[in-house]
């Protein structure tokens, strides 16, 4: 009977768990996968933030057009985008709020949008300074501007 117990014990010793080498191989494979996939995921994330900023700017442009129809003018730089959610003192035909949220959202990087009226290329300009927060950023850190209004 003791020989049967010894045989079972010997069989179980090989099945106790993973060896250190097996664990290192698995960790190395996971590391390689992350090294290949990680940059792509981060690139998609930065692209999605830029697209979100562009969509928000288009939404502001639509709201500004409604403001223009009601008041015969666009908000000036001092009134800014807050004129879309709160009546300015000199906007007699104001029929807002023009944004559904009832507040002006920040850009995807947590900064306020820059609104200028008149703009460089039209009656107004809406700018997100991107991830860099600088007016001369490039690439995914770059500035997102309103399309020609």
Task: Summarize the structure in words.
By secondary structure, the chain is mainly alpha-helical. The protein has a single domain, classed as 2-Layer Sandwich (Glycoprotein, Type 4 Pilin). The chain contains two helices and three strands, in the order ααβββ.
Offer a few descriptive terms:
149 residues; rod-shaped; Glycoprotein, Type 4 Pilin; mainly alpha
Number of domains: 1
CATH topology: Glycoprotein, Type 4 Pilin
Report how far the terminal alpha carbons are from each other: 92 Å
Class of secondary structure makeup: mainly alpha
**Largest sheet entry:** 3 strands, antiparallel
Fraction of residues in helix: 40-55%
The CATH superfamily is known as Glycoprotein, Type 4 Pilin
- By CATH reckoning, the class would read Alpha Beta
Tell me which CATH architecture applies here. 2-Layer Sandwich
Strand elements, count: 3
With strands numbered from the N-terminus, the spatial order across the biggest sheet is 1-2-3
Radius of gyration, Cα only, in angstroms? 29 Å
Tell me the β content: 5-15%
The dominant shape is rod-shaped
Question: Given the structure, what is the number of helices?
Answer: 2
